[in-house]
Amino acid sequence: MRLTQRVIQFGLAAMFWSLSFSAEAQQPNRVHRVRYLAPGASLTALPYIESFRQGLKTLGYIEGQNIVIEWRFTKGDAAKFRGFAAELVRLKVDCIVTQGIPAIRSAKQATSTIPIVMNVGDDPVQMGLIANLARPEGNVTGFTNVTAELAGKRLELLKEAFPKIYRVGHLWSGLTGAAHFREIETPARTLRIQLQRLEMKDPGDLENAFRIAGKDTDGLIVVGAAWLNNHRTQIIDLAAKTRLPIMYTQRQFVVEGGLMSYSADLFEQARHAAIYVDRILEGSKPADLPVEQPTKFELMI
Fold this sequence. Notes:
By secondary structure, the chain is α/β, with parallel strands linked by helices. 44% of the residues lie in helices and 19% in strands.
């Protein structure tokens, strides 16, 4: 009798294990959906995005198989972010990755529940995007590349390379450019450099700005903003015509023919963003992931 009971129990256990295994085998692996909001024109316009994709691949995510990335590019028109962010109300995504201030603000206004991994150039605490770096609270975490905080160092490097510079133009657009200008004013006085504000609001202003810079300055600092980045080729060509020494805030200008740049390593930062996305997809909350500041900087000449 006992032998019969044991046989029955074993048979039932084997049957349940078989059914369970069959169900698991038939259940498809979950496909994660990530929305990426960026100011560029395409994937190739922001080269460090490839580092983000490679970072995900290294962590085991294969696009089209276990992860789908919905790319949204504004081509320099920040107003489009509002429309892209509004789609979040209709589409279910597991995480949002944002590039730049307009992107994070639009995403943050659109949702308070979907995790957001941001990358901004300014101080995210001062801008009201998070509570503090160590514990950001809410649904936002990510990275700051401290573009503005490097302003003084860029001016020092430009002056060191070209000691006869005494008048420097500051070509900029948007909030990041404004913060950069505020940070550069004090070191400019220390170095006895006169600053020339060249604020851009439209790509059509570029030629006129370089004409002014060619007459009134000895050098130039170009602060990367969305549409300025999208017009790299034009800016580099104009720089060559004016023959001004120019410091950029993004290495890609130098890769494509510009003189010099000093910035955080955005490629390394993009790989770290992939790690944050992975941790969020595995269940971590943005509020528990500290906002990281760069530890690696690069001078490109």
